[in-house]
Amino acid sequence: MQSTWRAAYRAVVTYLDRLLDRLVVFRPSHRSAPFWKAMIAVSLLLAFLSRSLYGHVLSVDLFLLPVLLAAALFRNRGMLVIPLAAAAYCLGGLLCSGIDNRHLFLNTLGQTVEWVLLAGFGLVTLDRYGAIKRLQARMAGDVELARRLQLALMQNRFELGTVALRGKVNQTLEVGGDFYYFRPFGQKYVVFCLGDVMGKGISASLLMALVMGFMFEWGKKSPSPSFVLRKLNQRLIQWNQEQSTFVTMFYAVYDEEEGRLHFANAGHPAGLLLRGDGSVDELEGTGIPLGVMDDSEWGENQTSIAPGERLLMYSDGLLEARNENGEDYGMERLTASLRATQKLPLEKALERVESDVRRFCQGRLSDDLAILVMERS
């Protein structure tokens, strides 16, 4: 019930926001302009009649309506209504017997200045709002382009020899810092990793692209995960002198000839290896995140992968997904979900893990989420 009310509230707020946008940026078309001019003239006439019959109390606010309406609809040209309003205001005062004509001119001048200020303030507000909307539209276009480029950097499937990989990234914003990477290396190696850049949004996505560039530079020079992480760390330290950000990463190199996986972990959640008997091994590693300390070293571990066994890599957004009771998804649920995929094809296995997480948190992911699954055939 609570989620239904929240959805209804969001729908109402979204509708009102769009309606306000349409009202603020509305400009009469060539066909509708005469109608709106007639409405302004009628409002001005009603204000004049009120002024001439009832005096000051009610008429001031009635004069303000056509002035603001003309300024809002016709912008600078609408300011021409103000002299007409001032003349009607003054003439109505002359016709009203209850008004002291000795101060009528000063009163009219004061009201005219007030109308000019209010209409001018409205015009400036509308112009600024229009500029902001144009800037937002341009930024939205840039962000959409960045999103497409980011997705282009991360293919969702890869197959080479006995190795198959499937990956998926879900960003809480249009772009983010979670990523994965895979490529062949030499004649017998397949390199792949999954990482998480601190932060969200455009800044994180730019750093992610930079990290992937560094990986392409150094990942083709050595099959050693610890060597590559050390070089990546040095490049990040050189680029990030203030050490204001960092990157976590699980980096692996699979040797097809030997059937062995060499891996290192830079402060990232452990990879999970689903064995043929249904057991799950946590591929833990030692080492701090990249970009923190210049002289850091990362230990390198290895394990064998038999045909049919698969490795799951993921970002912390998966473990930290929370339900409405504030419970984390956690390692226990992830391990159980991975076991349930043992007889599923690789793509279905990835979908099963992702859907299980989304079902747990009711689709409300609080952090970016990346999943990469590798299987030996």
Describe this structure in words.
- It is a single chain.
- The protein has ten helices and eleven strands.
- It is α+β, with helices and mostly antiparallel strands.
- Strand 1 (157-160) and strand 2 form a beta hairpin.
CATH architecture of the largest domain: 4-Layer Sandwich
Number of domains: 2
Query: Element order, helices and strands?
Result: HHHHHEEEEHHEEEEEEHHHE
For the record, what CATH class of the largest domain applies?
Answer: Alpha Beta
Q: Oligomer, anyone?
A: single chain
Rg from Cα: 33 Å
Unreliable spans are none
Overall SS class: alpha+beta
Share of residues in strands: 15-25%
How would you name the CATH homologous superfamily of the largest domain?
Answer: PPM-type phosphatase domain
Total strands: 11
Q: Kindly, what is the distance between the CA atoms of the first and last residues, rounded to a whole number of angstroms?
A: 47 Å
State the CATH topology of the largest domain: Phosphatase 2c, domain 1
Fraction of residues in helix: 40-55%
Sum up the overall morphology in one term: elongated
Strand order of the largest sheet: 1-2-11-10-7-8
Q: Tell me the number of helical segments per DSSP (H or I, 4 or more residues long).
A: 10
Mean pLDDT: 83
Largest sheet: 6 strands, antiparallel
List keywords for this structure.
single chain; 377 residues; alpha+beta; Phosphatase 2c, domain 1; 5-stranded antiparallel sheet
